[in-house]
Amino acid sequence: MKSFEQQKQLLQQTDRLASLGQLAAGIAHELNNPIGYILSNLSSFQIYLAIFSKLIKLYQAQGQCIPASAEYQQIQQQIMELQQSEDIDFLMMDSESLLQDSVTGATRMKDLVLDLRRFSHPDHAEMQRIELVPLLESTIRLTRNEFKSQIEIERDFCEPLPDVWAQSSALSQVFVNILLNATQAIGSQPGKILISMHQDAERIVITIADSGSGISELHLQHIFEPFYTTKDIGKGTGLGLSICQSIIAQHGSALTALPTSTLGGAEFKFSLPLAGNR
Length: 278
Ligand SMILES: Nc1ncnc2c1ncn2[C@@H]1O[C@H](COP(=O)(O)OP(=O)(O)OP(=O)(O)O)[C@@H](O)[C@H]1O
Ligand SMILES: [Mg+2]
Fold this sequence. Notes:
Strand content: 15-25%
Bound molecules: adenosine-5'-triphosphate, magnesium ion
Strand order of the largest sheet: 2-4-5-7-6
Helix content: 55-70%
Oligomer: single chain
Distance between the termini: 37 Å
Order of helices and strands: HHHEHEEHEEHHEE
CATH topology of the largest domain: Heat Shock Protein 90
CATH class of the largest domain: Alpha Beta
């Protein structure tokens, strides 16, 4: 028989896997895009490199010749022909941008993998000092594919935003769940999500409001119950908010929901302790 604590951990793990499952197609797409152009850039560069090698070999051969000899002139002629036929200046310029774009793409892939590890890694389970903005932005990047282009994300953060004392992967699980719920409530309409983070005494208060369908009074009483979902079978496990609530409770706060917000849809609110001098 598992203890209550173990069961909760198991549920949290299940929910994290379910969220990852939901995000997997989007993440694959996010990775596929840079992989596609890095491969195409590298194969263009392979062709360019063959031309550059040919040119360098000609220069090397010319260096071996006696200047002004017939052989020297002949190689000079070949160099000029190659330069004209292949537009070497363009190839040099293009190589630079092919490689620069590939580095940018590979960096994006690396960041995405780091975001994924931050989300899924259990070694981030202890409480630690956390900078909220990078954590939130990495979560937004992970869920980016779910934010169809018509959803605008507005950020309202106090400056400077002090660090909080939290579990990073659990906290990003909370952001993923609330953000996914918001995008699902907005659906295919144009919409908006407003994320605000402000300091109030010894805590940072976070609200996430959306312009989606809102929550009816009837549903509002149940949304934090495990397995309560209004989504189609196979779409939601109904675990999201109950896990979020228990994660937020571990951070000494309560996750609350307003059925409507200034944006029209629902609003979720919780707070986190400041890291202070810990
Ligand atoms: N932003 C929101 N707007 C409207 N309704 C919401 C919102 N967030 C949650 N809900 C309601 O609360 C219910 C429970 O949410 P919860 O995140 O726990 O489960 P789920 O989203 O249905 O499934 P899962 O999170 O496992 O994919 C949802 O089915 C939905 O009816
Ligand atoms: Mg959910």
